[in-house]
Amino acid sequence: MSKQETPKNWRHIITWAACILAVVVVVLGAFTRLVDAGLGCPDWPGCYGHLTWPNDIKEIKTANMIFPDSPVDVSKTWPEMVHRYFAGTLLLFVVLLTYLAWRDRQAPTFKQTHILLIIIILQAAFGMWTVTLKLWPQVVTAHLLGGMATLSMLWILCERLAGKPRQLHGRYLPGIRRLRLLALTAVAIVILQIGLGGWTSSNYAALACPDFPTCHNQWWPQANFVEGFNIFQQIGPNYLGGALENDARTAIHLAHRIGALITTAIVLILSVLAWRYELRGWSLWLTGVLLLQVSLGIANVVMSLPLGIAVAHNAGAALLLLSLLTFCYRIYTMNAVIINKQEVVNVEVIVRGEGLTTVSNLN
């Protein structure tokens, strides 16, 4: 291994480790939110003035005296602090990646690494505001989207650092190029759907419709969309358990269901077209991940939001987003050049991630 290759390889290894850690942080964030532990520690970044959380009787008694309006609940303090420590460790990984990027400022991933650092610093701020603003739904939703953005940036960074050549038969290239806009649209729709999911969760509207496929045994029940999507609602005093009326929560839940239908339609169309252009592995994968996520969403309703399935639904959203991002990235970084217009003989595949170029003879 040459000295020139070492920084890139180290960055790749560290980025993979950070990506795995980001998955853990996203799942822990979902768990913390679902067990209502978002305010398990009323202060930040510590917990009742502790580096971890109060454990023994004396510490709990002292904490209750200092924070009389927020009595200690150990079942909620530890999920919050474990999540904070994992998130803090992830921040350190991103700082390390930024340092390594400065050692090789000509690398194509230099700017992306710094954007990632900005995102994760903002994410830490949203984590603080989640506590100080008492679970204000706007901040909680932004915190969820920030976590997904961090994970997505790390994942794409892994893809770029891998620099693997993507090969395809030249005759499928025009069709694959036509998939690019649809793939980008699918990514955008999934991001919006994740945002709707965050808004549903932060407003405690996941069970606003307790039945499926109807809602309150109606196809279109009474719903207040104006109140449900009023993003200018005042801050506080405390949004634990939600502050909206039932009609507003029903509107949020209905919007999330409609978003799920649109997402399903777009991803299935993309999968069918991918199959048509010989990307059958991707077609099957995207369809499978989509069906898994839809199944988990339905199970949440009919089984009254069991913790395990609810956490898995959040993880499934991340998996679907990463799958679509990877598919989108790979079809955008493929560029085939037909040498012989009469018969496809040579296909040049360029991976822009690290400037790697290879020529393959495909018939």
Topology:
Blueprint: H1 5-34, H2 57-66, H3 74-103, H4 110-132, H5 137-162, H6 173-202, H7 225-228, H8 246-276, H9 280-302, H10 307-332, E1 346-351, E2 356-361
Antiparallel strand pairs: 1-2
Mean pLDDT: 86
Q: Main beta sheet, described?
A: 2 strands, antiparallel
Number of DSSP-assigned strands: 2
**Radius of gyration over alpha carbons?**
23 Å
User: What is the CA-CA span between the terminal residues?
Assistant: 34 Å
The portion of residues assigned to helices is: 55-70%
The order of strands across the largest sheet is 1-2
Helical/strand content category: mainly alpha
**Element string (H = helix, E = strand):** HHHHHHHHHHEE
Tell the overall outline. flat
Q: Please mark out the parts with pLDDT under 50 across 5 or more consecutive residues, or reply none.
A: 1-6, 336-363
Q: Count the DSSP helices.
A: 10
Percent of sequence in beta strands: under 5%
User: What assembly state would you assign to the polypeptide chains in this entry?
Assistant: single chain
